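Technical annex B. To support the medicinal chemistry partners, we prepared a structural model of the target in complex with ECB, based solely on the information shown next.
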Amino acid sequence: MPVDFSGKWVLETNDKFEEYLKVLNVDFATRKIAISLSQTKVVCQDGDKFDFKTLSTFRNYELAFTVDVEFDEHTKGLDNRHVKSLVKWEGDKLVCTQKGEKANRGWKHWIEGNKLYLELTCEDVVCLQVFSRKE
Ligand code: ECB
């Protein structure tokens, strides 16, 4: 059966998140708030069509895309950049490249056991977020 990311996931661990925010030039005050947040990921998957909602008490971020279709992404409320994004399957991993001002930027999602993993990369920084299923 193909992988299904759909569901509600709550952040459990967030390794190197502040380093990731720094490399994106997020200011000190915003970083301190951001690293203290609980994040919830709400994912709706319909085949190769995805809707990702990243929710917190401070800011929310929504991203909808289709695998293999490049799109313009504005990271509004995050680092507020414009990038060209493309998501592909690499086996059961969902791999996004975000072309723009910052080198080597992108993310990867996969599921292992009952956990959702998100690796966020920018330049030489790799942040690893691990989520568990909510309810
Ligand atoms: C939206 C909750 C976090 C709010 C943090 C506020 C300010 C931080 C500024 C820049 C941070 C850059 C990324 C934040 C990390 C997670 C948010 C979503 C990252 C992302 O692109 O997730 C993908 C894959 O799940 C779907 O958009």
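Notes passed to the chemistry partners:
The CA atoms of residues 22 and 31 lie 8 Å apart.
The pocket of ECB is lined by residues 21, 24, 26, 30, 34, 37, 39, 41, 52, 54, 56, 58-61, 63, 78-79, 107, 118 (CB under 6 Å).
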